[in-house]
Amino acid sequence: MALFVQKYGGTSVGSVERIKKVAQHIAEFYRQGHDLVVVVSAMSGVTDQLLKLASQLHPEPSEREIDVLLSTGEQTTIALLSIALHALKIPAVSLTGAQAGIITDGRHTRAKILNISPKKIKELLRLRNVVVVAGFQGQNIEGHITTLGRGGSDLTAIALAAVIHAQCCQIYTDVEGVFTADPRIVPTARKIKEISYDELLEMAASGSKVMQARSVEFAKKFKVPFEVRSSFTNAAGTIVKEEVHTMEKVVVRAVSLEPNQAKVTILGVPDKPGIAAKVFSRIAEAEINVDMIVQNISDHGLTDITFTVHKDWLKKALVALEPIVSEIGAREVRATEGIAKLSVVGIGMRSHSGVAALLFSALAEAGVNVQMISTSEIKIAVIIDEEVGKKAAQVVHDAFKLDQFV
Ligand code: ASP
Ligand code: MG
């Protein structure tokens, strides 16, 4: 018999019918003799609805009150799921994050977990209860309710699995696992059996929305293997775990496409120390997330700096840069929208050569122009026109034969 942590996301508990299904699924595990800690999100759409209500009352609602408000979403689900389990004659007890012993720092709406004392959870498990814990929330040392950032229920599940030494951590979601590409973009994409933490992290940074990146980082740090699987089917999902040697056989594990990118180019920048520092300090002060950065070789002491941001940040970036352009003596700033980032990710890249060559050849054959390139040890990313993104993802997926091996 094993100790399971199961996490059900918002869509999996999005209606009374679905909560009943989840309860039946849990009941099966329970009746096989397993111990279960179940973490749930708010029913789908609820968190957004609550945020909307608050914004109708105040343009900048207090973050402390936002946490009190949003935590009710998950609190609703734990009670409903426990009631559904009772209807199946399964003993279940719901716990809020605070009751489950989750202590965080005081940064409301984006708190970090400091400590978990699972005494209550363990006590309830010993009495053969299913323990249903509200995801995404905790309390700070003074006892104020905190939340862990959007998508934070994943983090609750991984962190609980770590401290109670669960044998199995399952993240139930509305997709069947991690795919070699988004199947809506690349229809021949297939489910990946096993993937390393690092690959999933690179994919998350490249626009794949499978899991909250912080949760994957946490799982990596505490070596918690977990499975991402669907709550709508019984199919096995994708195991995410520490890298093992055989994983390197696969050169490229997945292709990600991130649309809605924008490019900012500062033209005619004096090529001397301190300029890039000035530009990016200003961008950082405005709390804008920069992705790729490229600087050209200089010509007559002048160079160009280009960086990409999500298109929603473009206006803010341009406003932030405006005063600095004349200050650093740059010629002009240009903005381009309608671009996308295409990335190939795989730990096998470390030990195989020719990945870049194959990627660029595939794109060239399809007539896709590469505007910017960036690499990490296990990723190559290119900026291309958004218009050709889908086609590019398909040809690259084909070129690396991602539809072929298991
Ligand atoms: N309910 C929260 C959100 O929508 C947390 C979660 O779902 O994981 O972000
Ligand atoms: Mg969610």
Automatic annotation (TrEMBL):
Binding residues for ATP: K7, Y8, G9, G10, T173, D174, R184, K209, V210
Entry annotated with the keyword Iron-sulfur: no
Listed InterPro entries: AceGlu_kinase-like_sf, ACT-like_dom_sf, ACT_Aspartokinase, ACT_dom, AKii-LysC-BS, Asp/Glu/Uridylate_kinase, Asp_kin_monofn, Asp_kinase
Molecular function terms from GO: aspartate kinase activity; ATP binding
Pathway membership: Amino-acid biosynthesis; L-methionine biosynthesis via de novo pathway; L-homoserine from L-aspartate: step 1/3; Amino-acid biosynthesis; L-threonine biosynthesis; L-threonine from L-aspartate: step 1/5; Amino-acid biosynthesis; L-lysine biosynthesis via DAP pathway; (S)-tetrahydrodipicolinate from L-aspartate: step 1/4
Keyword hit for Flavoprotein: no
GO cellular component: cytosol
Domain ACT: start-end pairs: 264-347
EC number: 2.7.2.4
Matches recorded under NCBIfam families: asp_kin_monofn (TIGR00656), asp_kinases (TIGR00657), PRK06635.1-2 (NF005154), PRK06635.1-4 (NF005155)
Name this polypeptide is given: Aspartokinase
Organism whose genome encodes this protein: Methylacidiphilum caldifontis
